[in-house]
Structures are given as C-alpha cells and as structure tokens.
Amino acid sequence: MPDGASEAYPTPDPGLQLIAEGVTELVGFGAAVINIRRGDEFEIVAAYGDETGHTTDGEMTVAEMLGTRFPVSVVTDLLDMSEDWGDIKFVPHEKNTIGEAEGYWVPDTDEDILKDPQDWHRLDELLAPFYDENGELVGVLSIDRPTNGRRPGRRQQRILNRFARQAKRAVLLTLQREYLEERANNLLEAQSFLREANSQLGLKGVLEATQEAMSRGLDADGLYVQAQAGDGGSVVYASPGLRWNANDSGNIAAGQAYQTTRLWNEGQHAIVNRELLRHRLHQSDPEQRMFAKIGLEFLDAVEADSLLVVPIGVETTALGHLVLLRGSGRPRWTDAEGRLAMEFGRDFGRIVLTSNAYTQERDLAQRLATADKVHSQLIESVAQELHNPLSALTTGIDALRHEERGSTAWFQQVGNLISRSDQLVAMVDDLLLFSRFSDPSSRPTLAYVDLVPLLREIFEQRTYESEKRGIEVTIDVPSHSVQVLGDRSEIKAAILRLVDNALVYTHRGGHVRLYIVESANEAAISVTDNGVGIPAAEQMQVFTEFYRGSSQAIGGRKGVGLGLSIVDRVARRHDGRVTLRSEPGTGTRVSLVLPLANDMISFG
Q: Whole-prediction pTM value?
C-alpha cells in the first residue's frame, strides 16, 4: 500500500485506464476500477476517480487502490445479491451484506439515511462481470458514486452497458496478450536454447534436457516421445532406462500415429492400463481388438502397467505424441493429470515447431549459400565458355565473306562455323538441363523405359561421331527387355553425356564400350573407355557442378563442367546412383545404376 506522495503507484493498463476514465468523466461517476482475476483473487489493474473511501485497513483514495487485491468470493457474493440490468449488475444497499468486510473499498460519506428511494447509498454497488469463452469469471468493472447522487436511470443504464461491453473486450484482449507474451517467452527460451547449442542441439537435445523435469513434474516413471522433425522425418526419444525402440514394431508405430491424429483432432488424452486392454481383447470390434493387442505389446516392451498418451500439436496440426509411463503398483493416471499433461502437449508442440523452424532456417541458409555459389559459377562459366565460340563464330562469318563461294577455303570456314555452332548448342543444352534438374518443383515424367532399345538408339546416334574420330564403339545388351521406371528423355540425356565424355577423352584408335549389367533388383548402364583416365585426387570432384579436371580433352573441347553433374542428378531423381572407376593412362568406367521397375518403391 503506498504511503506518501513520494511512493510510486503501479502502472495501470493504458487501454483499461481509458475505459475507467470514460465511465467517470462521460457517464458521471466518482470512481471506476477494473479488476482482473489472478487465481483466487482479483487485482485492480485500472482505477480512476477523485473519491476517498476506506477498507478494514484504513482510508484509501481511488488511485491508491491500484494493484491491490481482494478475494474472488467477494465479487461472486455480490453478484448473487444483484439485480440484472443487462451487462451491468446493480447491488442495492438493502441486499448488500458484504459492506466493508474482506478489505472491500467503501466510499466515505455520512449519507446513510436517504431522502428518496432513488438516491444513491454508499453501500449501493454497480458491477459488470466478465466471463471468458469457458464461462469462467475473469474480470469485473466496479462503478461507484454517481455525481448526481441518484441511482442510474434507463438512459444512464444503457450507456453503462455499452461501456461494460467495451471493458469486457479490453479485459479479454489483455488476458490474451498476457497469455501470448508468456508463451512467446517460452518459445524465445527454446530458440535461445537451440542456438546456444551451436546448431548441434536439435529436438532430441531438448528432450534430453527436459525429460527429467517433465517426468518429475507429472509423476511419471518414464516417458516416450515421437514427433515430426524439420526434415520431414521423425524424432523418437525414450527416457534413459526405457527399453523401447520405435523400429522394433511397425504395428505399434502405425497404431501410435493413428491415435495421435485422432486424439489431437478431438482435443483429448488417452489413459491406458492392462485391465482395460485385456477387456478390449474380447470385444467384437476388430479395430478395438487390434489396438488392444498393440497396446499390450507396448506395455510389455516398456515394462509399464499404465500409460497416459498426450498428443503433441499446434492449432489444427498433430505433430506427434507424448507417452507417460507408470510401473506396477503405482497409482493409475487420472483425468485431472491428463488435462495437466495436455498443456505439456500444446507447449511442446510449439517447441517442436520452433526447433523444426530453426533446423529448416539453418538448412535453407546453407542451400541459399550453395545456390548463390552455383549462381556465381554459372554466370562466370557461361561468360567464359560462350565468349570463345561466339568470338570464333563472328571471326568465321567475317572471314567467310572474303572467301570465294565454293572454294576449298570457303568450305573449311563453313565447317568451322558448323563445329562452333554445334559446340554452342551442346553447351546451352547442358545449361538448360542443369537448370531444370536443379529446380525442386521439376519432377520426372514416369513411364516404363526399356533400356535395351534405348542403348541401341544411342549407339546408332553416336556411330558417325565415333567413326569421324577414329574410335571404335561397341554395344553389349541382353536379348530380353530390361525395364526401369523413369523419364526416358532424362535417362537418355545422362547416357549420351557418358558416351560423349568417353569419346572426348579417348585417343584415336581407342575403344568405347556401352553395356548393361543386371543384378537382382538393379540395372547398371556402363560406359568404359581406354582413354586418358582421371587422376585419383580428382575423382571425388568430377560430379561437382562446373568442375573440369586437368585431363586433356583429345577428341574435342571440354564442356562447361556439367556433364557428370547432370548424370548424378538424373540418378538421384530416379532413386539410383552413379559409380566411377578410373586409372590415369588406362581408362575410365562410369555406371548409371537404376532400380528395376518391379523393385521401384518410391520416387524422389
């Protein structure tokens, strides 16, 4: 309680203070206070008026009431005595048995004997109770001492009801803001916790740091959590000593995922014990029997007698579940404990989102850094690679104008121009394919592709080029069909680049072989040559975008360094892989390995 002018009063809520001022100044009252519930008490958070009154603690002005508290029961008792004026409730002094008890403020006046029944008595009371969406009393507006000394008439009552509705909205918004601020602080702490871990502490780290406190706070013998991770997978955590692995049983994992979504959508928790599950084993519903069997299997695996299943989520999205365990001889879980644990589920859902958002933010930053590097390399490589052939084209065209049409020199210039043009087309094709395969929204067009006719087609297309370079190309394919599921144009583009690479790095008189090797569930399309080979130190880098090794190109010019990168992207887009084996001076073998069509399970 403030005791003198030098003491600083608590700071009132600005919005609520304006409403209190409006009631007194505009409607004509000597005092107005707004109270917000804090547990079993009301706290005065806004107060305005020039009245002086007293409580059991002594004399007090309206301003000095700010920050004081009194029991909720005082208001509920007054409401029981009140007359209904709409949003405003009137407590006549004839019914008011509270008086000055419980620290309640009563204005100072000697007018206990009224001249007129409509005169205002010092124990008359005006209240506007505020209830939340659950019907709980969360605040109240108290108004006292009309300046005209009379009980409010109908016109004044209508105005007071409007102020009461406005005050209710403001109080509910204030409570919501306080709630969000509290939750925001929790999220900031979680985010700070993650970042202080130097990007090494993910969702599992949060669980490791909090599981002991969660178990102790909810009186659990252990806990098990499964939640969505930022990379699209899931994080599974069991408290130390809990002998459980989510990969041990697909049925249990599937059952838990089903229950998680159902519980979150219904806003419910689930209490499970052995007695209940054994009873459900004998029910006629096959789904109930299945989940009872799964539940008993889980209890046996974690050596528990009962468990409390709480969904983890945010808003309309289920993000996982928290399972709290109790062993044999321990008290069974109650609904009250379940409701308390539901708060953990909602709070933990926000932590899951925060952790995942941070992980995604970190991964995105890494991808953006990589994309920026690739972008810079692309610009530099395109500028460098296009400059020479374009300059040569310009020079050749200029020279062609000075040669006699049909002469030997004229035909030589035309041949050079065609060669430069083909080179430009090949470079642009590589750049376009690389751009397409780098786009996450681009997906292959799925179809069954027979590799045998595809390789024969590629062999025919490269026969002229190989003969012109004096390199023998052979093909070895099975007599039967070899089918994969994928995009024929992408697979063909990858194989063509393997063949072209072999031709570029093989001496005249050399040999290139194109063949297929099958295993139980894969087909390897291999291209081998006896060319210059790749130094061992460079073999891990040749699939990097724009990387061009030190080996000398013999049968043509080097490209922009995207050929093997394109092959690698095609392989990954088809759930496959690329293998490479090379010896400098001996030759190279590169294989595009793809799943056979009857073994394709997913497509990424």
A: 0.39
